[in-house]
Specification:
By secondary structure, the protein is of the alpha+beta class. The protein has helices at residues 59-65, 81-99, 113-121, 137-140, and strands at residues 10-13, 16-24, 35-42, 47-54, 68-72, 104-108, 125-131, 145-151. The protein is 25% helix and 34% strand. A hairpin with a 4-residue loop joins β3 and β4.
Length: 157
């Protein structure tokens, strides 16, 4: 993990500020990429969810988790916080992706309409729908298919 660039303390866009919380360790045997975990705060400084950026590729990242992950707490959904969190980090992500020649993928379950709307709102392009590998943690919790999108964050900023 010491090879990862330093994370910004916080970034802002729209109705959110994302605050760096911790680095997440990868697990090469399980295909988990190292990355960054941020808390998402709204304009009242209330924590409304979290945002992850995974650096590097693996089958797990390409076919299940994606490079970007977010979760908004149920009581705070519907305000555009996830999209704003992505856009807050977009230039920083673009800089890292360029340094490591990494394509940025975002995935979602085919029936997760709010997440599909978020992904499309930030300008990601639909690539395809794929099967999640048997044995992947997403598969084991009942997520058998993923829609995959390519995001070019520098083009949005």
């Amino acid at each position: 993990m010491n090879q990862l660039p330093k994370a910004p303390e916080s970034l802002r866009y729209g109705k959110v500020k994302i605050v760096f919380d911790r680095l997440t360790e990868g697990d090469t045997e399980r295909g988990f990429a190292p990355g960054y975990h941020f808390k998402i705060l709204n304009t009242n400084c209330v924590e409304v969810g979290h945002f992850n950026f995974r650096v590097r590729d693996s089958e797990h990242v390409r076919l299940a988790a994606g490079h970007i992950g977010y979760e908004i707490l149920e009581e705070h959904r519907g305000h555009g916080y996830a999209g704003d969190a992505c856009l807050a980090a977009s230039q920083w992500i673009a800089d890292i992706a360029q340094k490591v020649s990494q394509e940025i993928l975002i995935t979602t379950d085919p029936d997760n309409i709010p997440s599909i709307r978020t992904i499309e709102r930030i300008g990601a392009t639909f690539l395809d729908e794929v099967s999640v590998p048997i044995g992947d943690p997403h598969y084991l919790r009942g997520s058998y298919r993923k829609r995959r999108y390519r995001w070019r964050p520098a083009s949005i900023v």
